[in-house]
Write a structure and sequence with these properties.
CATH architecture of one domain in chain B: Orthogonal Bundle
Helix content of chain A: 25-40%
Structural class of chain A: alpha/beta
Largest sheet of chain A: 6 strands, mixed
CATH superfamily of the largest domain in chain A: P-loop containing nucleotide triphosphate hydrolases
CATH class of one domain in chain B: Mainly Alpha
Radius of gyration of chain B: 22 Å
Low-confidence stretches of chain B: 1-20
Distance between the termini of chain B: 22 Å
Strand order of the largest sheet of chain B: 1-2
CATH class of the largest domain in chain A: Alpha Beta
Radius of gyration of chain A: 19 Å
Largest sheet of chain B: 2 strands, antiparallel
Distance between the termini of chain A: 19 Å
Helix content of chain B: 55-70%
Largest interface: A-B, 41 and 35 residues
Oligomer: heterodimer
Number of domains of chain A: 2
Mean pLDDT of chain A: 89
CATH topology of one domain in chain B: ABC transporter involved in vitamin B12 uptake, BtuC
Number of helices of chain A: 8
Strand order of the largest sheet of chain A: 6-9-10-3-11-12
Shape of chain A: globular
Mean pLDDT of chain B: 87
Shape of chain B: globular
Strand content of chain B: under 5%
CATH topology of the largest domain in chain A: Rossmann fold
Amino acid sequence: MKRAEVPALAAHGLEKKYGQVRALRGVSFEAYPGEVTALVGDNGAGKSTLVKCLAGAIRPDCGRIMVKGRPVSMTGPVQATKHGIETVYQDLALASDLDAAANVFLGREIRRLRVLHDHKEMRRRTAASFAELGVGLVQDMRVPVSSFSGGQRQSVAIARAAMWAKHVIIMDEPTAALGVIQTEKVLQLVDRVRSRGLAVVFISHNLPQVIEVADRIEVMRLGARTARFRRGEVDVERLIAAVSGAYSNEADVPNGEVTA
Amino acid sequence: MNTTKTRRGAAPDAPQKASAFSMVRTALSQTSGLTFAALIIMVIYFSFMEPGKFNTISNFDLLAQNLSILIVLSVGATFVIATSGIDLSIPAAVVLGEVFATKALGWFTVGEGTAVDVTDSETKLSYILVALLAALAAGLIVGVLNGVIIAYMHVPPLLATLGTLGSGLGAANLLQDGTNTGTSALSPVTSGEMIPGLSNIILIAALTVIVGWVALRLSVFGRYTLAIGSNEEAARRVGIKVERHLIKVYVLAALASSFGGFLSVSYFGTTALSGHTTDNMQAITAVALGGTSVFGGVATMLGTLMGALIPSLLKNGFIIMGVGAYWQDVAIGFVLVLTVWFDQMRRKARTKQ
């Protein structure tokens, strides 16, 4: 699976222990620009620990994280942001009483006279970005996001990430709480974000959906990567086998932990 | 299959409530609009019932003067409540502000005595400024204590500020040996009319509301305050230093309170060790009546101004009409509960969408 291109985001040999529990056992991971890389695995496989490491929320005990081929140290979510990585959290993480523009620019306000914010300009730029990404809502720019539907709010969260991400967007189960039509809209949005050349890391339990949207799929089990697939290489059954440990195509599987 | 947790505010498949309620809901969502309407109706009603008594300039002027200090306190309390916090320690900051201000006047030797004893015509700007700084220092102390206890020690705001309320009032009594100090040195601050026809104290309250409005609506500080009240975790994730911001908010509120204490000494000519015990409740009532959500995230400064006016207008109107003044307390109690209940229903309606 060697390729010439430099991954937008890569992890090598990440380890993380919580007491006696080895959540990550030397996991590696790559996400390439202009691709959706799905990260799948059963509960407890270490997906969320890996994602938290990549998003800067926790620090791995050892191993390297590289952005565009350069090793970076992630000491917090703000560092991840500085390295061009944005995360869309499962629980949305929007301030629901504020409007879309206030949320999009939260923590990065355009300022006037140092202490005031220029809400008009923020609203204008947000509307422009929403229009570009095909997120509707432009007529609802003045209402708090709490009056939006779940799908609309997820769109705001993704659009915010897309506006600020320079290299990578990590999406943790972006469609888990959504209905069918809203899920479709969010997936279309994911598609547009990818076509902007960003690397999208897509975490999901929904295997058919993963097969539909992902250009590449990386499977985790027991804290390590156990399988990798490209688009079209895998069906749901094979994927389930990989997730459950019945199938592996990786060399760096931890000894004795996975039955091939 | 793929969703096992129910998440607050993210249940998009829940059926939409029939839109019969939607107009009522919209009306409720603009609580400050309702408050304003109530205010206007009250003024018209009392003016109609008691023409020539209620609707006179002197009556309104007196009302406004009596309310000015409460308005200053309520502006500060609006920020605290916007973070979904509460500040019960307002009386402590007010009284300590009074005590610090008069103690500071005691530093100046004037003739046989100190600046405490000067008449309002003998006072100097330097006395007033030092007293003001001393009062604000008291607020700074109370505010930093509140902020650190709440943000870093994670004591719930209700209990944290209940603690500083007790300690602060106790400290003020210790400093004063339980007796009040009278002084006229500060009275020019509130008694004069820098704008002819408008008492300084009303002017000061109006300016405080304007500054508070700008800080809440137009400043990044206000936006962070609302964001923290709305979703603390979201604020943290975008890099807002939540703990530090909470300290700033409690300091701001305590500064407003101690400034209120400074104004109180100026206006009434004495410290009032036991004269502010219900200031916290009055301020919280004003803020909640005005439409600021006690659950955080939603705040309105103009609402707070109206919320401060309503109880006094009601009382004033009742007194002029000869209705027992205690009915005002009964009425305000009910209205307050209704307001918060509406707020809660509105929140529920929203998150159900």
